[in-house]
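Thread: quick sanity check before group meeting

JM: Hey all, I'm pulling together slides for Thursday and realized we never actually wrote out the predicted structure for the chain we discussed last week. Dropping the sequence here so it's in one place. If anyone has concerns about the input, flag it before I start.
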Amino acid sequence: MPVFGKSLFETVLDGMETEGEAEDDEPVVLRPRVGSAFVADTSFRDADDGRPLGALYEAFAEPSLSEPSVPSTPAPPDWLDRLSERDVADDLGLRPGMDRADIRARRRAFARENHPDRVHEDFRAAATARMTIANRLVEAALSP
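JM (edit): ok, ran it. Output follows.
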């Protein structure tokens, strides 16, 4: 399809020729560069007070991560010695005549404090035993 009496190809070629001419006529813009006078002195010499620069670095350095800190075992939970079915039932607080919503709310509250994923790994076996007993008691209370 001709544009102004020329084909599209001829129009593109004309445009490319005029762009090339315009680039030659544009002035060259020089941008300032940062000279070496602005670079900090990196020579290794002693500080003004006589200490080597390495000592200054060590004074402000972060503590070394090479020594792993041993996590201490937290204090045992209060319920650690309460693993019998009677103890768990008392802690769960189920009473005869409770409706289903109250029983489920008690289960959630009990799990927030006793679930194995929420305690230190040293106490997970006891927490698993407590949750197993509690779930069995709740299921018995929910069944007709």
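AS: nice. The mean pLDDT is 79. Residues 2 and 30 are 42 Å apart (CA to CA).
JM: adding both to the slides.
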